[in-house]
Design goal:
6 helices; globular; 139 residues
Length: 139
């Protein structure tokens, strides 16, 4: 079983939140919130900068297996035409989640995730290839 990075007992959940959860600015509105407000997530140029800087494991904490699982989950979600990508940009006051942009401020959340897939496929290509040579059921 694949465990969460830095854990030997918490199973890894390849949630798409790994990609955009970094945009949660709860209790960081004056620091991280101000920084993220400089970007327009609907601008292709800004979106690419956001994804590269924040979404693609900038601290290098994920192993090649984690990256493979995340990309597999993302690919499966993108293959479902009715998949609700808006939900990943919603605030959740019960869980103290305040996203930098509300789901209604992002014109096409699916397009945001498609761009993540495109950029991650390139940046992580060696890791994805390495993981594809293994049997994920043995992780």
């Amino acid at each position: 079983m694949l465990f969460h990075p830095h854990s030997s007992h918490i199973p890894f959940d390849a949630s798409l939140n790994y990609f955009v959860g970094v945009f949660d600015i709860y209790d960081q509105e004056e620091t991280k919130g101000v920084e993220l407000s400089k970007y327009d997530p609907n601008s292709p140029k800004d979106r690419e900068r956001l994804i590269i800087k924040y979404c693609l494991d900038p601290e290098e904490q994920l192993s090649y297996r984690h990256r493979y699982k995340l990309m597999d989950a993302l690919k499966c979600s993108l293959n479902i035409k009715s998949f609700n990508f808006h939900v990943f940009f919603e605030d959740n006051h019960d869980e103290y989640i305040n996203m930098a942009w509300n789901e209604d401020e992002i014109d096409d959340p699916r397009e945001f995730f498609e761009e993540i897939y495109r950029l991650a496929s390139d940046k992580w290509k060696d890791d994805l290839h390495k993981a594809s040579l293994e049997d994920p059921s043995t992780w």
